[in-house]
Amino acid sequence: MAKIGFIGLGNMGGPMATNLVKAGHSVTVFDLSEQALAVLESAGAQVATSASEAVAQAEFVVSMLPADKHVMSLYLGAGSDGEGIVEAIPNDALVIDSSTISAETARKLAKALIEKGKRVIDAPVSGGVGGAKAGTLTFICGGDSADIEEARPVLEDMGKAVFKAGDHGAGQVAKICNNMLLGVLMAGTSEALQLGRAHGLDPKVLSEIMLQSSGRNWTLEVYNPCPDVMNGVPSSNGYQGGFLVDLMLKDLGLALSTAETTDSKTPMGEQAKALFQAHSEAGAGQLDFSSIFQWFGQQGK
Question: What's the whole-model pTM score?
Answer without folding.
Answer: 0.90
